[in-house]
Amino acid sequence: MVPRRLLSCFGRGSNSKAKNPTASDHHATTHDQTTEEQRRGGPVVVELFSSQGCATSPEAELLISRLGRGDFKDELDVPIILLSFHVDYWDYMGWKDPFGSSQWTVRQKGYIEALKLDTMFTPQVLIQGTTQCVGTDQDAVLSNIRSAARYPSPTLQATFERPSADTLQVSLTGPLRTKIDSRGVDIMVALYENGLVTDCPKGENKGRVLANDYVIRKFEKLCTVKDISAKKSINGTVNFALWEGFNSSKCGVAVFLQNSSLQTFGAQNFQLPENL
């Protein structure tokens, strides 16, 4: 675990669309996404590192939910993909975040090292893996999204299947629309859930009802690719172990390319169909 002296819980002022399925049956649903937004430039990936054990994280979570609802359309004419990673290093404060994971803590630590930051904190927002700010700083979040570099979105076709009651299989095929050099990139696949509500009886948010959207439930690498043209098709499959109470109508899948420095180059989002 990262030493606690390097951890901070920051608040304001600290320095620091998916398409409808094109084919479906009882077993599988396929999405094929080609939009004008993808031709102009793909969406910006916004990652929030948060914790139900951090007193200021709920404010950042609300900002993420509002971004997802489109509350800032007049100020932010940029497509976005939102992902909320709940870390586990505040669990010792008295409340164990039910969505927290040491895997997400390790991911945040990777960003801290890549960006040469001194402090690991929540709530933290990363934009395209290259810029960061305190997650409660609305102006900084919006500004960083507006100024972020945008890349062509992959035009992947995604097929969703349930080979068993507790497994979701995601198969992807299609061109990345970005030339990949010899350094290569990882293709990451995230399964997230919206509409989560938690009564918090302990810790810094004791007595509060916490609402969370875009919460990462599963996260896997599809594959690593290198030395391929923008038109070359890739294909692969990931299997996600599902949790009790899984409801596909509340979930989505995000796919994005990321290099060894954790910079994001292109992304695509799929909403899971109902009754999958």
UniProtKB/TrEMBL annotation:
Highest taxon listed in the record's lineage: Eukaryota
Residue spans crossing the bilayer: none
InterPro entries in the cross-refs: DUF1223, Thioredoxin-like_sf
Polar residues composition-biased segments: 13-23
Pfam families per the UniProt record, alphabetical: DUF1223
Composition-biased stretches (Basic and acidic residues): 24-40
Chain residue ranges for the region called Disordered: 11-40
PANTHER family xref list: LIPOPROTEIN LIPID ATTACHMENT SITE-LIKE PROTEIN, PUTATIVE (DUF1223)-RELATED, PTHR36057
The protein's name: Thioredoxin-like fold domain-containing protein
Lineage: Eukaryota, Viridiplantae, Streptophyta, Embryophyta, Tracheophyta
